[in-house]
Specification:
Layout (H helix, E strand, L loop, with lengths): L8 H16 L43 E6 L4 E2 L4 E3 L17 E3 L9 E6 L3 E2 L2 E2 L13 E6 L4 E13 L5 H5 L5 E13 L4 E15 L1
Parallel strand pairs: 3-4, 5-10
Antiparallel strand pairs: 1-2, 1-8, 4-5, 6-7, 8-9, 9-11, 10-11
Amino acid sequence: MSRTRIPSPARRFRRLAAGLLAGTALVVLVGCSAPEATQPTQTSQPAAQVPAAAAPAAATAPLAASAPERLEVPSIGVASGPLLELGLTADGALEVPADATTVGWFGLGPTPGASGPAVLAAHVDYSGVPGTFTRLSAMAVGDEIRVARADGSTALFTAYRVAQYPKSAFPTEEVYGDTPGAELRLITCGGAFDDTARSYADNVVVYARLTGTV
């Protein structure tokens, strides 16, 4: 019996991203709205647009694939519980966690530390409860991000850009497109809260690259 070759996670993600970038869908974090008529606890402040060239740390070689287990971002006080694997909704949007404090990772993409852009997402707030990524827009270039992995290693990332985009103009290629090394994206909602639509107008994205491991 012949074997069916299964592409690597990075290759599968490149194929998925290629389809999305061709216009079949936009992978955008569309959640961060409260499930009930609850005013959000706060709205995030606009994030600084920092050129990628300002990155202060050199990248290191990608690691073997290994599922992420926990996230720490010391500069904004994030120390997550177990991560939740996320997929896509029927209309091609990134799924979101069902509560304020859970952080999810996009399971159809690379695992954090492996080659390509791994994606972690969480709420800025949810049903009146501050979310794990409430202060994501306050991150700065040079901030460290730590992702504990199932193989026992911890991948260390350094932020090189913090950006905020209208959801109507989300840069899918820039966020999800292939990268020469191991990178990470942290995504949440931001901007003004639309009471009618019950969601935020923007997305905040932190771009980071792998700079070490412990």
